[in-house]
Structures are given as C-alpha cells and as structure tokens.
Amino acid sequence: MGRAVPDVTPDGMSSPDGRPAWRVLLLCGASGAGKSRVSYPLARHYGTPIVEVDDLVEALQAMTTPSQQPLLHYWRTHPEAAARLAPADIVDLQMAIAEVLIPAVDAVVGNHLETDTPVIVEGDYLLPAFALRDSFAGVPAAGRVAAVVIREPDEDRLVENYRHREPDHGEQRHRARVSVLHGERLAAQAAEAGVPVVAARPWADVARRVIAALDVPVSSEERSAARLTAPAGLTAPAGLTRSLTA
Description:
Blueprint: E1 24-28, H1 35-46, E2 50-52, H2 53-63, H3 74-77, H4 81-84, H5 87-100, H6 102-115, E3 119-122, E4 135-136, E5 139-140, E6 145-151, H7 155-165, H8 173-193, E7 197-199, H9 206-214, H10 220-229, H11 238-243
Parallel strand pairs: 1-3, 1-6, 2-3, 6-7
Antiparallel strand pairs: 4-5
C-alpha cells in the first residue's frame, strides 16, 4: 500500500510536514541523461518506490505480438534501424512509441492516485505534457501529478556516459546524437507544458536542484494555460510507418 501522503496544498507546494504535494512524479529525459542515477536519491529523499517504464515495455511486449503493436516491438523486429536511421527519425520514432505507451502509464498513474500512494515513474518514453491531464485512468489528477525533465545537451558527455555504462559497446556517437535531439524535443515540450527542465550536471547537486524545481508553486491558472498550449498527439513518420510491418 505505501505510506499515506497529506493533502495537496492549493498552490502545489509541499505540505506543511515537508512531504511532496505530488503523488506521482514523472522523471523524463533522453537516454543517457542520468534519470536512473538521480531517481535513487530522489526516492530516498521522498520515501517513495520507483517504477521504470522499461519494465512496462517488457511486460507489454510479452503480452502482445509485433502485428498487434508494431511500434512497441519496432526495435526488436528492426535491430539494424538504430544504426541505419537518421537521428531525427529515431527521435520521431521514440516520441511515437511514448504515445503508444500512454495507456499503460495512465493505468499506473491512476492506480497510485486512487490508492493515494506516492511513486516516481522514470523512463525515456515519458512525455512531459502527459502530466497535464485532468485525470488518469478515470481518477482526477487534482494537481497531484508532477513532472521534471533531466537534460544533458553535450554530445561528448553522453558518449562518455554510454562508455561508462556499457564499456563493451565502444563509442556510441550516433546514439549520443540521438539523445541530444531527443532531449531538445522533450525540453521544448516541457517549456510549452510548464514543466521544469533541470540540467544533468553538475552531478553533485542534481537531486537537490530537482527537488527545488518541484517546490516552485504552480497555480491552477498556469496549469490551465499550459494545457491549452501542450502539443497534440504524435504519430510515427510516414517512412517509418510503412516499414513497421516490412
């Protein structure tokens, strides 16, 4: 069940006892930016569990076939695509896969809102604008869903991040370029949605900066304005769509 969390204050700030106003925190960001690394100190600070979107992807892939969910299975059915496609096309595909996953993430968020148990949801396939929904799985959000984007804009730093994480894979320059572009897209969407973007470095205080960004009050009027300007749903690029069943 998890620990009960006090009611949200009107301005979205932390409750008087210091617990977060949100019940669900969406930790967004491109691959290699450091989301997983910062999620652990955040979870310790707030006393919350972590849900990784990658685990949802694995579960959904086990329950579906490529013909049922071609986008969801794209990287398994097209292993060569990561090296063949242009970075911008890969980012389009990543954003489209994020859209496909919305019903699954929606169910997780709605469950935690209904049971009033806090959680941090972390992954590449999270869209900042998703946090603006009025309800999740039929449960009113009531200002209880927050989001933050972790961004690393330096390609060379991302190459080093991948080398440190996956030393046997060599230099992943192409992947780093994809991450830079993906981060730009997520940051642009975050700006439109009124979601904070936090620089990944310096690492020593990134968790503190995320906490500070989440404590900035957001009025209901600002949330409403952000909903009006949030980008609409995405679809896979035409060329990619044609190749999904190839």
